Amino acid sequence: MSIDSSVRVGIVGLGGIGHHHAERLKEQAVTLAGGVDISDGARERFTERFDVPAYADAEELYTVCDAVLITTPNRFHEEYAVSALEAGLDVMLEKPLAHTLESAERIADVAHEAEGFCMVGFNNRFGNPVEVIKQYQQDGRFGELTHIEANYIRRRGVPGRGSWFTSKAVAGGGSVIDIGVHAIDLALYFLDFPDVVEVSGVTRSEFGNREDYTFVEMWGEDAGAEGFDVDDSASAFIRTADDKTISLEVAWATNRPSNNEFVLRGTEAGAHYDRASHELTIYEAAKHGGDHLSDSSIETRSNDTHKAEQTYFLEHVSTGETPARNTVEQALSVQRVMDGIYRSSETGRAVQLE
Amino acid sequence: MADVKLENIVKQYEDVTAVDDMNLDIKHGEFVTFVGPSGCGKSTTMETIAGLTKPTSGTVMIGERDVTDLPPKDRGISMVFQNIALFPHMDVYDNISFGLRLRKYDKSEIDRRVEKAAEVVQLNGMMERMPDEMSGGQRQRVAIARAIVRNPDVFLMDEPLANLDAKLRVHMRTELQRLHKELDTTIIYVTHDQAEAMTMSDRIAVINAGQLQQIDPPLVCYNEPANLFVAGFIGSPSMNFVEGEVAGSGFTSDDVKVSFNPSDYNLGRGKDVTLGVRPEDVYLANNSREAADPTVPLTATTDVLEPMGNEIFAYLTFDEDATSSMTDAQLPGQLLISVDPDTEIEEDQEIEVVLDRSKIHLFDTAGGKALTHEITDTGATSTAGADAEVGTDD
Predict the structure, then answer these.
(1) How confident is the model at residue B317 (pLDDT cuts 50, 70, 90)?
(2) With DSSP H G I counted as helix, E B as strand and the rest as coil, what are the percentages for chain B, rounded to 5?
(3) B73 interaction partners in chain A (CB closer than 8 Å)
(4) Backbone φ and ψ of B153, nearest 5°
(5) Total domain count for chain A?
(6) Are residues B11 and B147 in the same domain?
């Protein structure tokens, strides 16, 4: 597939991640047509930096675009995804699909019926080690994958306290919906998105709500504990219809070392992938030549996952073909698991997913 | 005209068969309701018609078109779900018109259809309201209007009233019936609520374990259930069942004997059969003239009484060991009957009852299939044993 250079792309939501995407779009063989934000300051900064128009009204952007990247706070995903799809555009929506399961379902309903397609921004799938794992899994090298340990644990990493990230009304949740979403997505992706039947989880709020929250670095500004009403860590166990399992550890803040490791256990082989260091090891055993255990260290080129994801999106915008990766259905499965974790934590028991 | 036909639909999930060789033929303009216990396959069958689930095998026809491989948007259907799913950031007009705008209809055509749909569901004058300014019933009307504007060939409704309170649910039942008449369209409806199924449907499709048990008008399902499952599932409270076998003189169990000529029903001697009788078809002996064809009286003892206002449910026991903690109709040695609310009846009272032979059902115990829905008098007399009891024989 190749990218059609006549494709025009807009960005809705001109905050940090909007700029991050715009920088990469400028390196793609397409036109960055403009942006949308309700904030005057955000629009000015965007226009100044990227030399393209920025609008307050999304409809104005839609008339000069073929596709949009939506990078607003989670609560506004629905409004812009729905209006962009209604305008006939292709959409890439940053993760998570939405701030609530109900909102995610409404977006999915519209995406099913719309002319354009909707892809969801799970960029970690485009990391080269993940591509290798997925290829090995499709080749059958792991046999049947039966259990995944998925970790996305920061020792200290609560994002800007007082920003929308730490407001339940806007973000829909905290660590689970911000970074747990990536860990859940990768685990389900490795397992080929089986039906999840049960989720048991506990979410905690132990650090972000403290006036004496101690940290070394913070993404964004720290406005203190006031208004922090989301989780900052969670542990969960996820069971699928065919008894495959995922154990999940997520934290914005904990008193333990950071960990972004994935362990895959298969009937023929396993894998250990450290997303932080990009190290990937495959664990196998064989009888030929005498019983032996074999560990293969896999080295890949490091790559920019957001850019690779954009390239995939733009190739599909160019051809009009609906992407098979990062679909709304898969994002909805991830959203159901996150919703299950929150409900399980609230009710104090495992919840069944239909 | 949009008939809906399911031909040999199978939906297999790993080692679970959710829908097992389903065949259905629903005519244009019919209101057909799928009922069955949780996990029976009724929603999966609906999703197969909608295109939300692809069948493992089989064919879905809507009108003359094979839609098995078509996406939902190309099937000419509209769906209404339990989860009302209105866009919270859009007013009523925008919510109702959204599907048409997505399909690029002319503004004038959109206005015309929205106005008509709003009239049908009586939402005129509320076009600028936001969903959070409306009641649950109003929101559900918006959802229905959103389905109506698309002029679908078929409406699919999956538990659309389940989230409403009891009073509103009853009101919306009549609204949906009125809507069905006005629109002259096919409605396929999924519910676990028997009252909805009985009151609204032209036909009820009773589904269990992925298989169609019976599809018939509500009263046929009630009065002539095709098998033990339908007999037990349709009707609240449930039908009473007594297991026994065919003897030379008719039905016999340890507790109950009902005389008839087995050859009239092509029944061989020794065959295991189950007798079924609904609570309202059992009468106090002193009211036996109300039964079209009463059996001889059986003596029983009242156990638990449940006064419902318009009737009293009385759990009778024929077993001396039965205790008041046994409150289900089908427990051994128990029979549930319905009596007039003015009846003078007390707990632990010895009474006599008769069964109406014309309302007695017989089922093949092994396969569950119905054998007859009445015991006709061929000159033989119904008798109960000297130690007459009604109950199972185990």
Answers:
(1) confident
(2) 25, 30, 40
(3) 112-113
(4) -75, -35
(5) 2
(6) yes
